[in-house]
Amino acid sequence: MDPRRQFHADLEALQQDLLKMGTLVEESIFHSVRALTEQDQALAEQVLAGDDQIDRMEIDIETRSLQLIALQQPMAGDLRTLGTTLKAVTDLERMADHSVDIAKVVLRMSRQPWVKPLIDIPRMADLVEMMVRDGLTAFIRKDATLAKTLAVRDDVVDGLYAHIFRELLSLMISTPTAVEQAMQLMMVAQNLERIGDHATNIGEWVIYMVDGVRMDLNV
């Protein structure tokens, strides 16, 4: 295979591996929130155990991306694609870390029944999971239009986070015995909000990859 064909084959393999890593991150988010709502310690432990594989994938994708840049010296669009891959893999790894933090809340609180049904946190999780999925889809399809929609959804996530924060603060004031639980749930909501920010970051890099323009979607 000639060098250019080999380069594009390697680039395609990188993109597919980034997609696989993204799928693992989506599953980690889903399982961490399910473990929370069902107070399932075993599922929370599974999230923690799965983080090692995500970390290994991050290192592998980063290493291969840097090797391609160093050895092939890609130009213009290909260089932006590799740069976006390096940025996206970092955002995905951080999302997984936030998912692990949610699982740790489960392990701390699983023996205490929730003082009220969890409604808005699962809604928030559904939104950020879809944002992650669409950010990766936009990356694979080089779809800047889809990437730009992440900004609107991030605003919805931020609004839900503010609502959850106010609701939990009111609970802490009215029910002092629920303070610790409310604080832990605030941490969960904060981690989900940050996952949404990282998904939006991927959207920004997709726009750069496609159009060569840096756009701040987290405003």
Annotation keywords:
219 residues, mainly alpha, Methane Monooxygenase Hydroxylase, Chain G, domain 1, 86% helix, elongated
Unreliable residue stretches:
none
Question: Would you count the extended β strands for me?
Answer: 0
DSSP helical segment count: 6
CATH topology title: Methane Monooxygenase Hydroxylase, Chain G, domain 1
Main sheet record: none
Please characterize this protein's 3D structure.
- The protein is mostly helical and 219 residues long.
- It has one domain (3-211): Phosphate transport system protein phou homolog 2, domain 2 (Methane Monooxygenase Hydroxylase, Chain G, domain 1).
- It is 86% helix and 0% strand.
- It is built from six helices and no strands.
- The relative contact order is 0.14.
- Residues 18-106, 121-206 form the PhoU domain.
- It is found in: Cytoplasm.
- InterPro entries: PhoU (IPR028366), PhoU-like_sf (IPR038078), PhoU_dom (IPR026022).
Quick summary of this structure?
With 219 residues, this protein is an all-alpha fold.
Topology:
Layout: H1 3-38, H2 41-72, H3 76-109, H4 120-141, H5 144-174, H6 179-211
Subunit structure: Homodimer.
Main location: cytoplasm
Pfam families: PhoU (PF01895)
